[in-house]
């Protein structure tokens, strides 16, 4: 059973990302939205952590949030989503877990 993990807080402000990475399983996905997209900044500790995850796990981010924060997400294998794609992704996974 695969899980889509939704992270919404900046990695420097909470432990959402590190907690999520501890329970991440093969085939799971992570969506970064809001301030959590700061994890995609090149050279950040969070970006380094993401490079070490299982390659069967997918990383996504809301494009609107990435653009609003002028983040170059090309350094990581991340798929940018609009809101309709985000909703479709939530339906595609067996479970959805929002880290708050």
């Amino acid at each position: 059973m695969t899980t889509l993990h939704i992270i919404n807080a900046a990695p420097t402000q909470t432990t959402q990302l590190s907690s999520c990475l501890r329970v991440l399983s093969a085939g799971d996905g992570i969506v970064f939205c809001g301030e959590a997209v700061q994890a995609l900044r090149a050279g950040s500790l969070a970006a380094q952590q993401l490079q070490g995850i299982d390659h069967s796990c997918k990383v996504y981010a809301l494009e609107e949030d990435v653009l609003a924060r002028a983040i170059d997400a090309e350094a990581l294998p991340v798929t940018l989503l609009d809101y309709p794609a985000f909703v479709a992704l939530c339906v595609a996974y067996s479970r959805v877990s929002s880290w708050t």
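The chain has one domain: 3-99. The chain has a mean pLDDT of 91.
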